[in-house]
């Protein structure tokens, strides 16, 4: 049996890669209710949450946006910056006052290109986050819109 995969940045990246990434971070904050990014917008940055929570949402035609997942301490907000065409697949809103590390996507992609080992670590981490978010979105949408829900016990 495989151990559960961690999508939290401190556990997902080797220490030297984590320190290198944090070396280019900029500290930012958002008030509760602030939109961090919109589905379909240009993904030119990403964040790691220090304090607070972020709700990821998905547009649903004819309905309010569906909240897919809530993220907290040390979690990655945004993965679309790594994969072309660099367009957000979800939206994000600060569910509480938020403090985060912000990263310039072009700078991190350049670091990944110039150091293949660093690039593999980032790609593996972000890929694990994408897989986790895809499953969370599937379960949440089934809970909201399927006739009998996802069938999972909560």
From TrEMBL:
It comes from the Bacteria. Residues 9-78 form the Cyclic nucleotide-binding domain. Signal peptide: none annotated. PROSITE patterns: CNMP_BINDING_3 (PS50042). It holds the Pfam family cNMP_binding. This is Regulator.
